[in-house]
Amino acid sequence: MGHFSDILLMQAQSAIPIDLAFRIYRNARDRTLFQRVFHLTSLCLNAFIIKSALLRHNFKIINQNTLLDLVRDRPAFQPLITVSNHHCCLDDFLLTAGILPMSLILDVDKIRWTLAAVDICFINILYKTFFASGKGIPVWRRTRDLTTGHILNTGLGVDQPSIDFSLDLLNSGRWLHMFPQGRVVLPEEREREAEFRLRWGIGRLIAESKDPIILPVWHCNFDSLNPPTPPYFVNTVSRILGTPQCLTVTVGQPFQLGWLKNKLQRSLTGRTDSRQQLHAGLTAAVQNALYKLKIFAEAEHEKHKAHIKQR
């Protein structure tokens, strides 16, 4: 009864049904011509604006071709999951527009789908339209008060419709991007960021899709353009148009976890919590790879800053 009341509460708060992903897209594999044009127009317009804004700043991408090769040339029906840290609300826009060339963005079927928080990205008709047009998938996440630690929303867990929809996408060979930390990590939390546990949704996606390729990505200093302080819009515009910032994106090495999935399934046979432990084990492997990349990426960012100062 408690879980049902939580669902009703979240529906009332967001004023949208929990099957929104299916209502927007109907089917992951067969989008209408209108939906294709809808996505293409929005993605290209956003990419043009972001690329134009980034021209003022010192933007560096390390190992870019690894991602581009996977987006362009991976085998048919091979799922791709990219995961990255989450430091500001513009992370997805900056990553997509910053890393991908316009020629690839025009091929809208190859562009990533991404999970987006209902309580931020789908709160009204304008936001719903905007984020849906950018191939955003509404996800109901658990949220806490950062001061008290009290749970504000329980979320709908790993079995919510949005994760089902994401599995449909992956098993038809699509690219899904995730921010598995589950929220924006604030500047004052960065020293202990590597202690933050990733959400188990990534574990379920790996467990139930066709041995996806997983690619970690770590970005540095994006929040210098989109600081987490009000007034958000004014501060963001002033930063984008202000002093050029040093921005660094590091693409890691791709890996697959089919071997670990099989190992865990064998070792967990007969346990009542085998499914949860499978998700936890796969999530932990991704977490290890992402935070290992963090160390290298932050060192590269410091080199990038030093190089800019010497110019």
TrEMBL record:
It is found in: Mitochondrion inner membrane; Mitochondrion outer membrane. The keyword Acyltransferase applies. Residues 80-222 form the Phospholipid/glycerol acyltransferase domain. Keywords: Acyltransferase, Lipid metabolism, Membrane, Mitochondrion, Mitochondrion inner membrane, Mitochondrion outer membrane, Transferase. This is Tafazzin family protein. Its main location: mitochondrion. It catalyses: 1'-[1,2-diacyl-sn-glycero-3-phospho],3'-[1-acyl-sn-glycero-3-phospho]-glycerol + a 1,2-diacyl-sn-glycero-3-phosphocholine = a cardiolipin + a 1-acyl-sn-glycero-3-phosphocholine; 1,2-di-(9Z-octadecenoyl)-sn-glycero-3-phosphocholine + 1-hexadecanoyl-sn-glycero-3-phosphocholine = 1-hexadecanoyl-2-(9Z-octadecenoyl)-sn-glycero-3-phosphocholine + 1-(9Z-octadecenoyl)-sn-glycero-3-phosphocholine. It comes from Schistocephalus solidus. GO terms for biological process: cardiolipin acyl-chain remodeling; inner mitochondrial membrane organization. InterPro entries: Plipid/glycerol_acylTrfase, Tafazzin. The keyword Mitochondrion applies. Belongs to the taffazin family. It is a peripheral membrane protein. One of its GO terms (cellular component) is mitochondrial inner membrane. GO terms for molecular function: 1-acylglycerophosphocholine O-acyltransferase activity.
